Sequence to fold (281 residues):
Amino acid sequence: MKKLFKKIITKNLYLDHLYQLSSTYFYYYKIKNSPFVKNIYEKKIYYELFNKVKNLNYKEVELFENKCSFKIDKYWLDDLALITQVTIKKSNLCYAHGRVIYSCLSNFLSSINENVNIVETGTSKGFSSLCMAKALSDLNKKGKINTIDILPKNKKIYWNSISDAKGKLTRSELLGKWKDLTEKYINYHEGFSKNILKNYLDLNRIHFAFLDGSHTYLDVGFEFTFISKRQIKNDIIIVDDYNEQYPGLIKAVDKLSQVFNYSIELINSERNRTYAICKKK
Fold:
């Protein structure tokens, strides 16, 4: 019944947005205090999950890496993924987006020589922003990543991670191993993307963006529009989860790519995981 209700709701773009917005506000206290986990699991469960996915092959992702001429260090990526991407959930584990983001950003950075402004919506545990920080570091480029999420940035919580065995951690504690990158390249913002983008980020140019926050038509539409007005030719927006599960997201990306003159390249990692790489013409 719940799945049927959600399917009906998502067919109406405005009802979908209202449903997601009301759900977020209704569960805001829960999200801020226990967003990921009800139970603490043994480390061996996370290691078992990790060993099942770490060597999976994604043909389109590999082809894209070759096209970009940049590939993230697998051992570095796996190390980060074990902490931030290997979780106990119903859907399949997949962290190939880290590879796509790194390769795409590295290729972009190789052709410019200026301070780079990057925006991310949907920080979660911090995996994607660290992959982008890794690209900045590897290519010895100056820049800042402003990443946004409603999750608390300074509160100790459980993360549905192998790290939960240590007790509740803040995000900075969770990512302590990569402190050199987080401190040099990343600014964490707590709040809703619309509010943060409008009122707290004074950016005239956004060279690169990764959108993985709210997946509704209105929210993706606002984020895409805001960023596109601050981009020039060859700047990039990557949108995660360009799948039929999120019709509002697809419609927003397709419509606004035409309005603001972007090409779209789709990369599939698995059946229900597609990344839309939107490049300003």
